Amino acid sequence: MQILTTGGTIDKVYFDANSKFEIGDSLLPELLAESNIHEGYAIRELMRKDSLELTDDDRDGILEAVKQTEHSRIIITHGTDTMAQTAQVLKTLPDRTIVLTGAMQPARMRRTDAIFNIGFAWAAARLLPPGVYIAMNGEVFEAGAVRKNLEAQKFERIDDAAR
């Protein structure tokens, strides 16, 4: 399994009460170990950006990294604000199982969803057929049919959001 990191909340380090932060070293190896996943993966850091700072060129870089890997199953850690846009760009790769995940709270915080989301994304990437998915907080969404509900701080299917 190839795991690509792009930054986002999962890797944020906060410095003070004014919410000044930077994207730090990924805690992914520790998160995988806490999920009892110790082998069968390669981690590659692509960038350290908040997803609101990602550009079309960054998304093209993510797409190119996925194209270049020999692995057919890929997890991408990503900030939640623009995760759906990146998933949409990756839909052009029909022969891979690509799962994007992240966290609503940084992995460094006590009450984070990062550990669960990484374990859940691992299972999703191993079990799902080829396609592009977002795996967050116990749900899997297909690329192109999901959005982040900022008010509720969760992902939802676009057809569910219309109801």
UniProtKB/TrEMBL annotation:
A Pfam family it matches: Asparaginase
Protein name, per record: Asparaginase
Cross-referenced InterPro entries: Asp/glu_Ase-like_sf, Asparaginase/glutaminase-like, L-asparaginase_N, L-asparaginase_N_sf
Binding site for substrate: 51, 80-81
MF terms in GO: asparaginase activity
Gene3D superfamilies: L-asparaginase, N-terminal domain
Residue ranges of every copy of the L-asparaginase N-terminal domain listed in the record: 3-149
PROSITE patterns linked: ASN_GLN_ASE_3
Active-site feature positions: 9 (o-isoaspartyl threonine intermediate)
